[in-house]
Write a structure and sequence with these properties.
This protein has 391 residues and is an alpha+beta fold. The protein is globular and about 55 Å long.
């Protein structure tokens, strides 16, 4: 996994489990393999797994009762589920306690050169670094849609950033979260990460580490812990994505559908936090964008992963390969852990919309790059929305 993968990665934390995930192709009609029956949430907040999915997992030697008792820590290749139809993420209550969330660290990074663009495609000059600015607390008043994604991988507990986004099938009642593909799936080298959970407005009061060590869970996660009961990323990320070098980065996006860890109040995530951003899949080309604002919880030095930051800059273009979409790039000193955080710009209606997410950046942390969202991203988004239509 990666803390802004050295060309940007995820940092870390592990927590409460959820359910089935699938990859999606270029359009909503090509949503990849799915379990024949979706998991459902019971009234007590626990996720129930369909018998046919349980049987299929048992064929792979995976028993869900043993899984929740600790078998999820087994990262042998035959236990690391890669295919969409085999992904499972059952809720493990209280797995993500304040200590585990706070102490999660980044996996080791492999240094990369600042210039990963190559010679093909359209690439603008490297932007000047833009110092990340601390978001004013309480975060819920300044960036209600922002939060952290916690998950487990072979290297330990990790963390990314994420954004609450609108659900076209459930207006005003979205349970959808946007993040990076590398925050849910290891790409070509592995499979789906485990114990994926989202915490909106993590550390809402911007407490220091010593203060967090004494803070109750209600203060660390004031709007609750939300387990992913479904996740989708692009087929390109699954087949091409890598921790370094930018491979798969133009398709490094994902959507997680979430459910409250302990049943909650019956309100959706959007109703709980009071906000969700629209996603713009036809954002203007770089020359037509005045600036973008990237938000996230950077965890690699000099940051500690506990506080929310933002960078605002006029974007440039970064081409990793002429055959792939050109990415957005901005100057920003945020580091690993900010991966997956939303990039916001004015949409065609003049209102703020999510137009990208943090994907890659150099180890020297002078800039970030994010995918330009097109048909593949829209297909992932619409597939998740349709799957939970009316629920």
């Amino acid at each position: 996994m990666r803390p802004i993968r050295p060309t940007l990665a995820a940092a870390s934390i592990a927590a409460v489990l959820a359910l089935a995930a699938t990859a999606c192709g270029p359009s909503e009609d090509n949503a990849g393999d799915k379990p024949s029956a979706p998991a459902s949430q019971s009234t007590d907040g626990k996720i129930t797994i369909p018998d046919d999915l349980k049987d299929r997992l048992k064929e792979r030697g995976i028993d869900l009762d043993k899984w929740k008792d600790g078998e999820w820590k087994n990262w042998d290749r035959d236990k690391w589920l890669r295919e969409a139809k085999d992904f499972v993420n059952p809720i493990i209550e209280d797995l993500w306690d304040p200590d585990r969330m706070r102490e999660a660290e980044q996996p080791p990074e492999k240094p990369v050169d600042n210039d990963i663009s190559g010679d093909e495609g359209v690439t603008d000059p490297t932007p000047a670094p833009v110092d990340a600015q601390a978001v004013n607390a309480p975060y819920h008043s300044s960036a209600a849609e922002a939060g952290k994604v916690f998950f487990d991988g072979p290297q330990g507990s990790m963390v990314c950033s994420a954004t609450v986004v609108k659900d076209p099938a459930n207006p005003g009642k979205s349970n959808m979260v946007w993040t990076a593909g590398h925050c849910v799936h290891a790409g070509k080298s592995g499979g789906w990460y485990r114990n994926i959970a989202f915490v909106p407005s993590y550390n809402n009061s911007a407490l220091s580490v010593p203060e967090l060590e004494k803070a109750p869970k209600e203060q660390v996660a004031p709007y609750g812990v939300w387990w992913g009961d479904w996740a989708q990323t692009s087929e390109q990320w699954i087949s091409q994505g890598a921790a370094t070098g930018g491979q798969g980065a133009p398709f490094d996006f994902a959507v997680i559908h979430v459910t409250p860890e302990k049943g909650g109040t019956g309100k959706s995530l959007e109703e709980t936090v009071g906000s969700a951003l629209p996603v713009d899949f036809s954002a203007p080309a770089v020359p037509k964008i005045g600036n973008m604002t990237a938000t996230g919880y950077p965890a690699a030095p000099p940051f500690d992963g506990q506080k929310l930051f933002q960078c605002a800059d006029k974007p440039g273009r970064l081409s990793l390969k002429a055959s792939d979409p050109t990415m957005y790039r901005i100057g920003c000193t945020m580091t690993g852990g900010s991966s997956g955080g939303g990039w916001v710009a004015k949409g065609q209606d003049g209102k703020p919309a999510l137009v990208s997410n943090t994907s890659i950046g150099p180890v020297t942390a002078g800039w970030l790059a994010g995918p330009r969202l097109g048909d593949e991203a829209k297909g992932v988004y619409n597939a998740v929305s349709k799957k939970f239509a009316g629920q």
